[in-house]
Amino acid sequence: MYRVLGAALVAGAICVLLTPLLIRFLRKREYGQVVREDGPHAHFVKKGTPTMGGILIVLGTVVAYMAFSKWTPEGLIVLGTMVACGLLGFADDFIQIRKKRSLGLKARYKVIGQVAIALAFTLLATRLASPGHPALPKQFSFLGGTAVSLGVFFFIWVFIMIIGSSNAVNLTDGLDGLASGSMVMVMAAYLLIAFTMFRHPLSQHPRFYPFSGAPALDIAIISGAVLGACVGFLWWNAAPAKIFMGDTGSLALGGVMAAIALMTRTQLLLLILGGLFVLEALSVAIQVGVFKMTGGKRVFRMAPIHHHFELGGWSEFTVMVRLWILCGFFVLVGFAIFYVDFVGRVPS
């Protein structure tokens, strides 16, 4: 456990200590946030706030992992997914900043990048594994495998997981501290899940999960590092934010969250643990769908749903705290489902 805690502390320290330097660097070069013209008026004051703070979230996670891990194939694949998604987000942020517009990388290029990441993850994760441990099976999973084999279509499922998760976190990152604070709770749950799998290997208890041992410890280390990095970043991202994570951070966090769910065989459990992110993404899908089908009618005052509450009179801080509470509820329910299933597998 000391490795997991050490990774969290190192990643957190990197974000807390280096973010002021990054803020000065970004301000000097006028790399500031571009605000949506149709967004809440209260957000206009955020225009010019340094962005791309996700650089340090990714850096802190990578350094912490390299320092405390034994570098298993499973851990490196998950970490590589985070870095690749972060680079895609960085390209998006950089284009927004240089062209002074709220639209960065064109949608088709972003999708092409996410397809490449999903393909690389699928090819590597289903072929490479630590000695004595099975590679990722090409099947749906909830709490372990479901015996629903997808075969060659598993790549499509991985793509859906990565694009859905990264875009959901990106949509949630619209209020100071909302995405980073919510990610802390989700990563805390995955830290406990992965560490539980590590402590109860399949070789000793056949009824436990097929993912265990050193690979599970590596995923716990990554979860701890991401948790620590988000806590450190939140120190500067709390309202009023001194810096935003940008797409660099949100795509990286969404990507690593999906990769962890895939690798731990808890893919569908992510829909519950990440319930807040799902709710934010659904609000946009519903708004756009109804708008197109009805010729202009809206379900929400504005989507994502956190803007709906803002325009309803809630302060940004109130919206953030209440959505944090909702996120905590989703995480508790998700972890409770895992724990009840785990206890049910304990040999009598």
Task: Give an overview of the whole structure.
With 348 residues, this protein is mostly helical. The protein has one domain. Helices cover 67% and strands 2% of the residues. The protein has helices spanning 2-28, 54-68, 73-99, 107-125, 154-172, 178-199, 213-237, 246-263, 270-273, 275-294, 305-311, 316-345; strands spanning 139-141, 145-149. Strands 1-2 form a two-stranded antiparallel sheet. Helix 6 packs parallel to helix 12 (316-345). The longest helix has 30 residues, at 316-345. It is globular and about 55 Å long. The two termini are 27 Å apart.
Produce the secondary structure layout.
Blueprint: H1 2-28, H2 54-68, H3 73-99, H4 107-125, E1 139-141, E2 145-149, H5 154-172, H6 178-199, H7 213-237, H8 246-263, H9 270-273, H10 275-294, H11 305-311, H12 316-345
Antiparallel strand pairs: 1-2
Helix pairs in contact: 1-2, 1-7, 2-3, 2-7, 2-8, 3-4, 3-7, 3-8, 4-5, 5-8, 5-10, 6-7, 6-8, 6-12
- Model regions low in confidence, pLDDT < 50 over at least 5 residues: none
Q: How many individual β-strands?
A: 2
Strand order, sheet with most strands: 1-2
Number of helices: 12
**What distance separates the N and C termini?**
27 Å
Helical content band? 55-70%
Task: Give the C-alpha Rg.
Answer: 20 Å
Which whole number gives the mean pLDDT?
Answer: 89
